[in-house]
Automatic annotation (TrEMBL):
Alphabetized CDD domains for the sequence: Rieske
Transmembrane spans: 12-31
Name this protein carries in UniProt: Cytochrome b6-f complex iron-sulfur subunit
Gene Ontology molecular-function annotations: 2 iron, 2 sulfur cluster binding; metal ion binding
Cofactor annotation: [2Fe-2S] cluster
Pfam families, A to Z: Rieske (PF00355)
Gene3D superfamilies according to UniProt: Rieske [2Fe-2S] iron-sulphur domain
Stretches assigned to the Rieske domain: 83-138
InterPro entries: Rieske_2Fe-2S (IPR017941), Rieske_2Fe-2S_sf (IPR036922), Rieske_Fe-S_prot (IPR014349), Rieske_Fe-S_prot_C (IPR005805)
Keyword vocabulary terms for this entry: 2Fe-2S, Disulfide bond, Iron, Iron-sulfur, Membrane, Metal-binding, Transmembrane, Transmembrane helix
Keyword hit for Transmembrane: yes
Length: 172
């Protein structure tokens, strides 16, 4: 009888240890996912303000480390941004990802419009819709000007958004 009790006790102790061993990585994954969701948006110093011509959007590639659920990749392009300097030296930044299905939006200087070659979505230079299948205008990004070592730099908060829907929903 005593022996049976002892074996029962050993089994429950071993089961508990086994459960803890299984739970630790699962909890680690859960907390890292939650932490990632709370992270602040990444900011990028993309260009000197003086290097942009007013009214002529320029595209800048965002270089960073890419991380998915299981893998960290080395630095590489993760997206791009269209930046316009306005006459009053304020700036406007748009994600170059088409809100229709995610192709890269181009700029047509002759017509002063943004154009997505995949399904012919056309946008005004202020990002609003001209024509095409896109459910919303171009996704504007937060941008500001920061003085770094005496020079004015354009700093953009880069984020990605859901495509194919009318609302602008961040997926960072
Ligand atoms: S992905 Fe741009 S128009 Fe379809």
């Amino acid at each position: 009888m005593r022996r049976r009790k002892f074996l029962k006790y050993c089994t429950s102790v071993l089961s508990s240890i086994y459960a803890i061993i299984l739970a630790v990585p699962a909890l680690g994954f859960l907390f890292s996912t939650l932490k990632r969701g709370q992270q602040e948006k990444e900011t990028y110093e993309l260009a000197k303000l003086n290097d942009l011509e007013p009214g002529v959007p320029q595209r800048f590639t965002i270089i960073d480390r890419r991380v998915d659920a299981w893998t960290k990749y080395p630095s590489g392009p993760i997206g791009s941004v269209w930046i316009s300097k306005n006459e009053d030296e304020s700036i406007t930044a748009f994600s170059s990802t088409c809100p229709h299905l995610g192709c890269v939006v181009d700029y047509v200087p002759g017509d002063k419009v943004f154009f997505c070659p995949c399904h012919a979505a056309t946008f005004e230079s202020n990002g609003s819709i001209v024509s095409g299948p896109q459910p919303r205008g171009m996704d504007e990004l937060n941008a500001s000007i920061k003085t770094i070592r005496g020079e004015k730099w354009i700093v953009v908060e880069y984020e990605k958004f859901e495509t194919g829907i009318a609302e602008k929903v961040s997926i960072n």
